[in-house]
Specification:
Layout (H helix, E strand, L loop, with lengths): L7 E6 L4 E6 L2 E14 L2 E8 L5 H6 L14 E4 L10 E2 L7 E2 L7 H13 L4 H14 L15 H4 L9
Parallel strand pairs: 1-5
Antiparallel strand pairs: 1-2, 2-3, 3-4, 6-7
The structure holds zinc ion.
The site of zinc ion (ZN) has 7 residues, from loops.
Length: 165
């Protein structure tokens, strides 16, 4: 997908995740960027046009160019709130790797196990009792989920503090 076509502009977004294709001052297509390649003095964007149902596409299609005041350059940059969930960020377990989700696969379990080991002396039971007690004390609403475990805050209220870290 060339960035310069006659009568069209391409607004691409922070960290080159999505491109808005602008025609007549409005968004006429939204693409997810897979890569960039340089051809002499031009940069080509490789990607796929998003179809109906994708949240970024549905939010922006038909809307005015969000970077209209930024410059008259055919390529503009801006941040869109809808792309936040797709943005690369550090994995939540603090392993130092990069993910497009809160955690890399399996790293949420690793982070959970790490907390149990360091804060609850390796006892998941102590962890669950502590969570239930905190939820009860702070009025955290309990969602009605069919597979709810057979324990609740009432069982844990009389338990002591968690084991030493
Ligand atoms: Zn991680």
């Amino acid at each position: 997908m060339p960035t310069r076509s006659i009568g069209m502009k391409c607004r691409w977004l922070s960290r080159e995740k999505f491109a808005l294709i602008i025609g007549d001052g409005r968004v006429i297509a939204v693409a997810e960027i897979r890569g960039l390649s340089v051809h002499e003095d031009r940069v080509a964007v490789d990607g796929a046009v998003l179809t109906e149902g994708h949240p970024v596409r549905d939010e922006w299609i038909g809307r005015p160019d969000p970077a209209i005041n930024a410059s008259q350059n055919p390529v503009g940059y801006c941040d869109l709130p809808q792309e936040a969930e797709f943005r690369e960020r550090p994995c939540g377990c603090k392993c130092g790797e990069i993910s497009t989700r809160d955690f890399l696969p399996g790293h949420d379990v690793r982070a959970f196990q790490d907390r149990v080991r360091r804060l609850f002396n390796g006892s998941p039971l102590e962890f669950f009792r502590w969570v239930d007690r905190m939820a009860g004390q702070h009025g955290v609403p309990v969602l009605a989920i069919r597979s709810r475990p057979n324990s609740d805050a009432a069982d844990a209220v009389d338990q002591g503090e968690p084991s030493n870290p």
